[in-house]
Amino acid sequence: MENTEKVKEFSRSIAKVKAELAKDVVGQQDIIDNVLIAIVAGGNVLLEGVPGVGKTRLVRSLGKTLGLPFSRIQFTPDLMPSDVTGTNIIEKKPDGKMETVFQKGPIFANLVLADEINRATPKTQSSMLEVMQEHKVTVAKQTYVLQEPFFVLATENPIEQDGTYPLPEAQMDRFIFKLIVKFPSVQELADIVNMTQVTLEETAEAVIDGPTVMAMRALAKDVPVIDDVLNYAVNLVSNTHPELDKTSDTAKKYIKYGASPRAAQALITAAKVRALMNGNYNVSYEDIDELARPVLRHRIKVNYTAVNEKLGVDDVIGLLIQENKKLSR
């Protein structure tokens, strides 16, 4: 199959998934698009939003649509690392002998919802994030590899912060995207109420499967990126660092510390998937600009000047994009 046909098939598969998700999830098109990009790209997503905006429903529907096992972990202060990864237990065999057997934890699923991850202690958070990074679990010197595709959607509640353990900046960096779920509009809220009056169960059906997702990931890796676009993405990340000699005026004025090299990797990897979703076999400047906020918003920290001028992190990223356009094109 030539690249043109493969790109068309990629777009058709994504369109099928989005059509099925629309049966269960009202609105949130940007969130759905970015979550699908992350799954195909092989990254994980941090989702911030108030309770009841459909975070759990989205992941459960995704599991059905992609034909993949779904698991939910409700994080609490007393949750231990073994409650996430699993642990060795002693079982009695039919012949009366005792043997050690590994009991897999809820992390052993293709799609995992880590609900309110900031409620767990740093020890449990680190265990979870290590599995997200390595895609394997090591218990008693025995390593268990997770089945691909493996995707974690971790949620945070931005309102209630009592008894929480905010993720350290270095740990946040392990998420390819941070997405903000906004409260639905009046019409969307009415549609949600009407939908849930019929049934609370998800009605989406499987339209693709795990091997298809892996084939889509392989295709995305082969998407070419011309040098000008690559340099544009790299400069955008580099210009978030106020300490560098050649950096942006925005960084010098508004940023306390900048993004890591992982941000540049995430930008290019995700941009390749976004290009295919839109039917293109090359990465454009627009792909980089559209993904800049979800990639950078949890990787940079603004300073007091930005706070005093009532500029949020997304506002600062917008200024960086505008400045990068002038410098790079």
Briefly, what CATH class of the largest domain? Alpha Beta
CATH names the topology of the largest domain as Rossmann fold
What is the number of independent domains? 2
Order of helices and strands: HHEHEHEEEHEEEHEHHHHEHHEHH
CATH H-tier superfamily of the largest domain: P-loop containing nucleotide triphosphate hydrolases
Total of helices: 14
What are the low-pLDDT stretches, counting only 5+ consecutive residues below 50? none
Average pLDDT figure: 83
Spatial order of strands in the largest sheet: 2-5-8-1-9
Largest β-sheet summary: 5 strands, parallel
Q: What key attributes describe this structure?
A:
Helicase, Ruva Protein, domain 3, Rossmann fold, 329 residues, five-stranded parallel sheet, single chain, alpha/beta
In words, what does this structure look like?
Strand 3 (86-92) and strand 4 form a beta hairpin. With 329 residues, this protein is α/β, with parallel strands linked by helices. The longest helix is centred in the N-terminal third of the chain and has 19 residues, at 3-21. Helix 2 (29-41) packs across helix 11 (261-277), helix 9 (227-238) packs parallel to helix 12 (285-296) and helix 12 packs antiparallel against helix 14 (313-328). The strands form four sheets. Strands 2-5-8-1-9 form a five-stranded parallel β-sheet. It has a two-stranded antiparallel sheet with strand order 3-4. The protein is globular. It has two domains: 3-77 and 106-213, 3-Layer(aba) Sandwich (Rossmann fold); 223-328, Orthogonal Bundle (Helicase, Ruva Protein, domain 3), CATH 1.10.8. It is built from 14 helices and eleven strands. The chain has helices at 3-21, 29-41, 55-66, 81-85, 122-134, 169-172, 186-198, 210-221, 227-238, 249-254, 261-277, 285-296, 304-308, 313-328; strands at residues 45-48, 70-74, 86-92, 98-104, 111-115, 136-139, 142-145, 151-156, 177-180, 255-257, 301-302.
